[in-house]
Amino acid sequence: MAAASLAQSIGQELPFLRRYARALTGSQTAGDNYAAATLEAILVEPGMVPPDDVRVGLFRTFHGIWHSSGQPVETEGQSGQEIRAQARLRNLTPNSREALLLHTIEDMSHDQIARIMQVGPDEAAELVAIARAEIGGALSAKVMIIEDETIIAMDLKGIVQSLGHEVTGIARTHKAAIELAQTQRPDLILSDIQLADGSSGVEAVGQLMGDLGDLPVIFITAFPERLLTGERPEPAFLLPKPYRADQVASAVGQAIFFASTEDLVIA
Known about the structure:
about 270 residues; alpha/beta; five-stranded parallel beta sheet; two-stranded antiparallel sheet; 11 helices; about 55% helix; globular
């Protein structure tokens, strides 16, 4: 593969590497720094990304940098909430959360995860299972859903409740979202991008963040690449439509894991 073709292939995968890196670190800045370091390493040694498996090569290079750095991001300038999240990370089984995110958020097979993390496929599958047990069900949160399609909204509600969380309600418009949040403050928001009356889920979430302060948000959209441009603040958790239940469960667990404070109920 020519250098130009390899660069193009890497460019197509880069938004998803950045998505994964932000979900992994809980921070857009930290995640993008790791993604940038990955690209710098590939520029120095292009052979790290095989032309016939660009995606695995890109993520494998990222993981080499992630592990060599000690994994947890620096705490200088972080909030107390972010520092507590990093402390919780150190108590997880090594590599388990990475494997879970690769499998659910990035839709990687156990074989792909094995090649990225340089372990056997059976170990990759075991790491995914361990992460589900360690992260899922540790905290109970109040979750608000912003979604205008009734079937999807009810499906999301069922998934969230099956994880042991409380759904404060479902809003189908920008205005309804603001009113619902005023009734009961959520710990987490699941939001579509385009709402029933033509209003924007992104704008609704922006207003809620202004009114309520920082909240973890998971955006669900048929066009995730439109929010992965690097030109503006981006969500750490961004799921594609159609989604799978395990993708939603993983993102909810990760978001609550990073954002948990004393206000959340320990289950």
